[in-house]
Amino acid sequence: MEKMMDDDENWLSDDEHIGNQYSAVYWRILIVDDEPDIHAVTRLALNKVKYKGRELEIVSAYSGKEAFEVLCKQPDVAMILLDVVMETEDAGLILARRIREELKNDLVRIILRTGQPGQAPEQSVIVDYDINDYKLKTELTSQKMFTTVISSLRSYEGLKIIETSRRGLDKILEATSNLYQLDSLKELASGVLTQIDAILNVGKDGVLCLLDSISDSTSQRMPLIVATSGESTDLLAQKFLDESHPWAKPILAAFREEKSIYLNDVDVLIIHTTHGRQFAVAFRSIRPLNDIERSLLTIFCDRIAAAFDNLHMFELLKKTQEATVVALADLAESRDATTGGHVRRVCRLTEAIAQELKTANKLPPEADAHFLAFVGIASILHDVGKVGIPDVVLLKPGKHTPEERVIMEGHTHIGETVLERAAKMVEGISSLSIGAQIAGCHHEHYDGNGYPRRLKGNEIPFAARIVAVVDVFDALLHARPYKEPWPLDEVLTYLQERSGKQFDPDIVWAITHFVSTKNPDWIQTDGH
Known about the structure:
Blueprint: E1 26-32, H1 36-45, E2 50-51, E3 54-61, H2 64-73, E4 79-83, H3 91-101, E5 109-114, H4 122-128, E6 133-136, H5 142-179, H6 185-200, E7 206-213, E8 221-229, H7 248-257, E9 261-262, E10 266-272, E11 278-284, H8 291-333, H9 342-359, H10 369-379, H11 391-394, H12 402-409, H13 411-423, H14 431-441, H15 462-477, H16 488-497, H17 505-517
Parallel strand pairs: 1-3, 1-4, 4-5, 5-6
Antiparallel strand pairs: 2-3, 7-8, 7-11, 9-10, 10-11
Helix pairs in contact: 2-3, 5-6, 5-8, 6-8, 9-10, 9-15, 9-17, 10-14, 13-14, 14-15, 15-16
């Protein structure tokens, strides 16, 4: 086997770097013939041949079986000079069919050459076998050999470019479809870094920045670090990219010039969104990117810009929905000033408990990503129905009469009805639809002794079962006009004593585990 050195562009492949150390600088040609003299003559004829600055690497095989083994190990062969008659009269034809059908290699150019044309008539061979040319050994002079090789390499190069672009676009479509499902900026940014490496195999060391402002002056704009990968992970400890970082200058230059920059040690991609935000993706490049790869990255950046825009719109809609929910809760709180910050604490703890259950694999099937996104804000609405309760009942100190208690319990039906009506105006799961479940069922008991419908166990909506525990937990932990705050250990004991009766045991476990292991500062008894 001969190797001839030269420098040229790299090629993109599906599972590994674009070829190995040889294919990036050579055109690999396989000679398949059982006559050693044919190998020697062919090598002599092609000794000085170059195409686009790249020399030839000539590989020899002396039978169809040996050639098949070579192709299995070296799929980046550009051209095969294939004899027909070797170990059998049709060994070359069998190999040609195996290359296309078994190896699924449609790129390699197969030039069939024979010294016995009667064994393989040209017309039938051209029709029945997927070969690219048919030559008699006697007609392949040095000049004709040169012409055949160059035309075959040119054809292979064109097909390789098409295949490279197709695979790159397939990966971009796959990457963007996955990234469009992410609903947080940090997750989306991290996904972009991961997918760039998956598309190009350029290394995992990267950082994604958002152009932000650290003052009112437009001249004080610095890159805000959103996500990192590889050796750059330490950068997350700082909010803005330090000017002393070796990537700071090219990132700032890319932002300033509003275009991508490709350097020897780092490449910086600029992503423009229609909402006027600019993102820069910088990654350490282990090799220069060729024109195809840069074109693919441009397409990728365009698609990702749309993903960032979609995320921005989702965040705006979510904030609008949250503001609406908070306004409704504030309306209910204005009737009952004793609740104070109760609903906001319930929101925060509901989200925490849902995540705790997710980590423990205790979520029911209906608790999907949408549920987790909305359950916290929906919990704010658990007592919104109190707005329909007369002041004489709602604000009455002390115990209610049986008749007053019936009126008071009606807040569950009022809240559920109002929220269900509003939820019908929103397609799919929303904070309103989940809020309706919570408002109507957060006073149901796990053993069926609650109200208003005396539901039990899993008949009670999961969100309502969470809020049933969280609502009592927070109410006991904080002061009310009719009671002093309870110590945390007594509150947990109270919940555990009612586990399986009033409360879902999994929810009681989750809140106990969360408080004992996480012990967040925002969970504390009034005055402690």
